[in-house]
């Protein structure tokens, strides 16, 4: 009885890690937060994997402008001269 319980616990642990890994990989390919989906897959297993599988890709807004930090003489972070009004 004791050996069976330990075996089932190890199999459950490895299955949870596997579902977390597959969910993490799928989230990354769909442009979603891989770390968050890893933990969802770890705790919810096939339910999280199926939910992510049926979810669409993360929308990428082409009009969205990425901002970056710029170093200059006036301080560690400042607005570049071409962006000032």
Fold and architecture overview:
The chain has a domain of 59 residues. The chain is 56% helix and 0% strand. The protein has three helices and no strands. The model has no long low-confidence stretch (mean pLDDT 82).
| Average pLDDT metric | 82
The protein's oligomeric status is single chain
The portion of residues forming beta strands comes to under 5%
The number of distinct β-strands equals 0
The H-and-E topology, N to C, reads as HHH
Our Rg estimate from Cα atoms comes to: 22 Å
Task: Extract low-pLDDT stretches.
Answer: none
Class based on secondary structure composition and strand pairing: mainly alpha
How much helix is in the residues? Answer: 55-70%
Q: How many individual helices?
A: 3
The end-to-end span amounts to 75 Å
Overall 3D form: elongated
Largest sheet: none
What are the defining features of this structure?
mainly alpha; single chain; 85 residues; 56% helix
Topology (SSEs and partners):
Elements: H1 2-29, H2 34-44, H3 46-54
Provide a compact summary of the structure.
The chain is mainly α and 85 residues long. It has a domain at 1-59. Helix content is 56%, strand content 0%.
